[in-house]
Amino acid sequence: MDFTLTEEQAAIRQMAQDFTREEIAPFALEWDREKHFPVETIRNAGALGMGAIYVRDDIGGTGLGRVESALIIEALASGCPAVASYISIHNMCAWMIDRFGNQQQREQWLPGLVTMERLASYCLTEPGSGSDAAALKTRAVREGDHYVVSGQKQFISGAGASDVYVVMVRTGDDGSKGISTLVVPADTPGLSFGADERKMGWHAQPTRAVILDGARVPVANRLGEEGDGFKIAMAGLDGGRLNIAAASLGGAQSAFDKALAYMGERRAFGQPLTAFQALQFSLADMAGNLEMCRTFLWRAAAALDAKAHDATTLCAMAKRLVTDRCYEVANNALQLHGGYGYLAEYGIEKIVRDLRVHQILEGTNEIMNVIIARSLIGRAS
Ligand SMILES: Cc1cc2nc3c(=O)[nH]c(=O)nc-3n(C[C@H](O)[C@H](O)[C@H](O)COP(=O)(O)OP(=O)(O)OC[C@H]3O[C@@H](n4cnc5c(N)ncnc54)[C@H](O)[C@@H]3O)c2cc1C
């Protein structure tokens, strides 16, 4: 087992770090303050292949794996976790179309998505169903070669700005087997958006309800068969969870780096903060946690690439472990800045606000434990 990056992986990470240093980090605080979704910057990331990291290359995808994705998203998130996380969601949607779409659907949707000239959103959550996603109620009724879709999706990242919506709908009975996945373009009559939600963090990307009111969607836009939708949605989330974890890691690493630099400069009781052993231990704990998170994230990513039997469990473990620990690291980094950590200009409180939601979305961390526990009990019985 070799935990060093290959030359190609190191080059990919360097490319993403360079992009982040030049095009994301200098502007992240302004985007957060102005609640600006930096679509041009996101498109520039797409031009470098970061919009379709694990989409196959016959259709213009970058054709890499989940470890490379973790490297890229971590690097992007060191500049702005909110932007990195949106890019992660877009990647998840593009992969779902690549993996579950037929050739005609791949050719129809992917060329615009791989370059990020067209952006995508993932629509599973509804006002009445979040954790219990299989209880979704958005109904798609077949009329000839169209579905007529009515319902509401809640908390949709990128909604209003995205061009393509990957929407989980009910075409059959209650429960997970009655769900299908439709690709719905933004200009579909009957599709509209709620107001941009006011929220704690992730200010650099919009969150809106997606409202479907008699929207007519061609049957040809369905991914897979009727009833495959829940499986498709969950498959997307395995990789999505790794990426959200990577986004936490990038944010936390950046907060740690800021704290380390600050502690060398800031003096108290006649010495720099780095001279206090209690604070040295805090740094040691944080550094160890970051490294543990990174190592385990790569392990889970490799398992997903290898289609290992326990990949879903490992992805859930990685999501919970990394997002929880990295939130703690970012919050400790804020503490080590004293009162200055609470001021927006130091960039630490933004990271803490951005990382908080990673413990909630793409399955809450309690739901990650549900998944892990189920696999344990299943294995034991
Ligand atoms: C900023 C933001 C962006 C988002 N982006 C998207 C998006 O792009 N697409 C999308 O589809 N969704 C998105 N979501 C929705 C997100 O995935 C849900 O909020 C999340 O899955 C939780 O659902 P809920 O809010 O309905 O909480 P609930 O399901 O109501 O949960 C409430 C609490 O109960 C706990 N709980 C529920 N069931 C159990 C159980 N069985 N065991 C133990 N604890 C349990 C939960 O962990 C949580 O603490 C986003 C959310 C936010 C805040």
UniProtKB/TrEMBL annotation:
Names of required cofactors: FAD
Family named by the database record: Belongs to the acyl-CoA dehydrogenase family.
Pfam families linked: Acyl-CoA_dh_1 (PF00441), Acyl-CoA_dh_M (PF02770), Acyl-CoA_dh_N (PF02771)
This protein's name: Acyl-CoA dehydrogenase
UniProt record, GO biological process: branched-chain amino acid catabolic process
Top-level taxon in the UniProt lineage: Bacteria
Residue ranges annotated for the Acyl-CoA oxidase/dehydrogenase middle domain, each copy included: 122-213
Gene Ontology MF annotations: acyl-CoA dehydrogenase activity; flavin adenine dinucleotide binding
Record flagged with keyword Flavoprotein: yes
Gene3D superfamilies named in the record: Acyl-CoA dehydrogenase/oxidase, N-terminal domain, Butyryl-CoA Dehydrogenase, subunit A, domain 2, Butyryl-CoA Dehydrogenase, subunit A, domain 3
Pathway participation: Amino-acid degradation; L-valine degradation
Acyl-CoA dehydrogenase/oxidase C-terminal domain location: 227-376
Acyl-CoA dehydrogenase/oxidase N-terminal domain sequence ranges: 6-117
Keywords for the protein's UniProt record, in alphabetical order: Branched-chain amino acid catabolism, FAD, Flavoprotein, Oxidoreductase
